[in-house]
Amino acid sequence: MRICVTGAFGVTSLVKRLVFDTFSLHHKPTILTTKYRVDDFEIVDIPASAAPMQCCILIMTCKTQKEIEPLARLWFGLHRHLVVAFYGNSKEQAKLCPDPHFVRTDNMSRDGILEILRIIHTYKYKQNALK
Fold first, then answer.
1. Domain count of the fold of the chain
2. What are the DSSP calls for 12-45, one per residue?
3. What is the pTM of this model?
4. Where do the H-state alpha helices sit in 41-84?
5. Which one, out of 17, 51, 93, 126, has a CA that is 20 to 30 A from the CA of 39?
6. Cβ neighbours of residue 65 under 8 Å, at least 6 residues apart?
7. What's the CA gap between 109 and 17, in Å, rounded?
8. Which CATH number does the domain housing residue 20 bear?
9. Which domain covers residue 54, as residue numbers?
10. Rounded CA separation 90/52 (Å)
11. Which residues, at least 6 apart from 114, have a Cβ–Cβ distance to it below 8 Å?
């Protein structure tokens, strides 16, 4: 199962948190596409400027959904499920994905991380059940 992570803020941080359960206080912008293999998953860390690719789950990171709307259009039709990892304290409502897939996230704590992992595992088991 391929999971792509892209967006406007905290992309590599989120990937490192999901794959290694670590975080850093240093901000490093995503400049290269990086693939990680974890069990049955391929997690791809993709800069916003890179070409979209086919995936099962797309996780888009942002501080506001408006900043990733153009990026979401580029990815339209290349994923089965969209999860928006939202960094911020505003009262923004889900526009780009279903409400359960709009996850308020903080990489320095576990806020939202376990919810994203739950969504990933739910779709993994649904996909295996359909085979």
1. 1
2. HHHHHHHHHS---SS-----S-EEEEETTEEEEE
3. 0.92
4. 69-75
5. 51
6. 84, 86, 92, 94, 95, 96
7. 9
8. 3.40.50
9. 2-130
10. 28
11. none
